Amino acid sequence: MEWEKVLRDAVKENSIKELHLRKVPSLKTCEDWNKVTELGTIDHKTKYAYYRGGLVKYGDRLFFVTQERLDAVSPFRKWEFKSKIKVTDPEIVSEKK
Q1: DSSP class of residue 76?
Q2: Higher pLDDT residue, 6 or 76?
Q3: Which range marks the domain in which residue 50 is found?
Q4: Which residues have C-beta within 8 Å of that of residue 89, sequence separation ≥ 6?
Q5: Within a domain: residue 96?
Q6: Can you list the alpha helix ranges (DSSP code H) found in the chain?
Q7: Cβ–Cβ < 8 Å for 52, 66
Q8: Quick check: is 95 in a domain?
Q9: Rounded CA separation 44/88 (Å)
């Protein structure tokens, strides 16, 4: 399974599976922050990590940007996240049934 292909379409109807979120690489630096497209914000805590920031597209790839990095870049670029992305967890959903 090639994760780049799976992650390209991982965000559907403003939601992403937790399994996919864990595989999304973090965008730490890029040549032109103005070419980054905002998809939505994330605020989700897993067993081992806390995802607080935003999901973005850079080129044709999906990336996670931490809130600290968004704050650091904000003097140079205005962020316009229009939606909040819900994280779905299939393990919890299957336990509720």
Answers
A1: T
A2: 76
A3: 2-88
A4: 17, 18
A5: no
A6: 3-8, 18-23, 67-73, 90-96
A7: yes
A8: no
A9: 10
3-state secondary structure of 84: strand
**30 touches 69 (CB < 8 A):** no
Count of CB atoms within 10 A of residue 63's CB? 20
Count of domains for the chain? 1
Of 11-25, 54-68, 82-96, give the lowest mean pLDDT range.
82-96
Residue 94 in any domain: the answer is no
Distance from the Cα of residue 36 to its chain's centroid: 12
**Residue 51 resides in a domain:** yes
Instruction: Read off the pLDDT of residues 36-72 as tens digits, 9 standing for 90 and up.
Output: 999 999 999 988 889 999 999 998 899 999 999 999 9
- 63/49 Cα distance (integer angstroms): 16
Give residue 68's pLDDT.
96
